[in-house]
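Give me structure tokens for this 105-residue protein.
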Amino acid sequence: MPDTTCSSDKTGHAAKRAWPIERKINLVLEGLRGHRPVTQLCREAGISPTRYYQWRQQVLDAARVGLVHPEAERHALEQRVQQLEAENAHLQARVRIFQDLCVAD
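Here you go.
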């Protein structure tokens, strides 16, 4: 049986429980297999069916993006590297100017 205890914060509200990504994915996959009702699965995991269906939608959306745009993440990383390289070149130029000013004094 999972630990379903929640601590309270300073305001008295229950603290949100952090769920590892792998655990969320495994619960969603188990629900999709249909070996037992989602309500039972949720009860055993200590989550609401609403939360399960939110996670399921997130997993399906991520899968859809991964299948439609398998190169999207690599492209985004390449763009970020280009941005960082440009920023690095700009900062190096500023450092050289600063060094020149310090040497001139």
